[in-house]
């Protein structure tokens, strides 16, 4: 693998002539060691390229993301981890300069097909960001907002008058999501308080509970603990591992220790948006195939 990368860096093939993009992609694929896992992929990424204007941020990435497990995306700053993560629920569509080529299959459909309903897609593939971003509303409303918006909960005066008040269902949903996100015990006596009054770690767990309220299958997390202290981080890490029993979690992290602690498989991206190695987390950290990955993990660069 490392030889391939060196060759690619020089942009010359063995006969000394310039390498075309097609040849480069072919070589990435030819050298690629497929990550073999038991079970089903939740998402299958094939030949993904992402450009911001003329700059390529992701280069011909293919990978299957196993369901109900934690997949960590690691690599040095600017290597494309967040860009890749945002492709998985089409958040890059919101960035004007971004252009995405390739396929990402979710339940047999390419999420980049024209007829994909983005609201529905992002409901099934939710996202948690680096900075906790609760709505400036009550704790209860943070959880109930999504289901109300999607028409799954009907509450309030009109609903009561029409005899289809879902207040009881809402109470159950709020409790279930807050319990799943391991924050119920800390907030159950103040559900009507403003969420902005919670600590950073509590706000982040509330955001995870909010994401769960619309019953996603996949949860994308972009450095969800990087703004938190070690105790809050540890709670988020425990929570992520618990969630992976039911959900597929994909997490971008700058912390190799965190990836090693909580993930089942790790994908290592290196500069230029190449996915250089993707394997079982123990294998990546103990015996990587690629010299460049070993150098990165042992701190020789990055
Ligand atoms: N909205 C944008 N517009 C233009 N270029 C962008 C945009 N977002 C990212 N990039 C560029 O794409 C490349 C990959 O960025 P990205 O944020 O995905 O990397 P990263 O690995 O997540 O970095 P970090 O670890 O620092 O968050 C970088 O060169 C970055 O400058």
TrEMBL record:
Tell me where in this chain the ABC transporter domain is found: 43-297
InterPro entries documented for this protein: AAA+_ATPase, ABC_transporter-like_ATP-bd, ABC_transporter-like_CS, P-loop_NTPase, PstB-like
Q: Which GO terms describe its cellular component?
A: membrane
Which segments carry the region annotation Disordered? 1-27
Q: Which processes are annotated in GO (biological process)?
A: phosphate ion transmembrane transport
Query: Looking at the record's lineage, which domain of life comes first?
Result: Archaea
Q: Which PROSITE patterns match?
A: ABC_TRANSPORTER_1, ABC_TRANSPORTER_2
Q: Which UniProt keywords apply?
A: ATP-binding, Cell membrane, Membrane, Nucleotide-binding, Transport
Q: Locations of Polar residues compositional bias? A: 11-21
**Could you cite one Gene Ontology molecular function of this protein?**
ATP hydrolysis activity
Asked if the record carries the keyword ATP-binding, the reply is yes
Name this polypeptide is given: Phosphate ABC transporter ATP-binding protein
Task: Tell me what organism the protein belongs to.
Answer: Haladaptatus paucihalophilus DX253
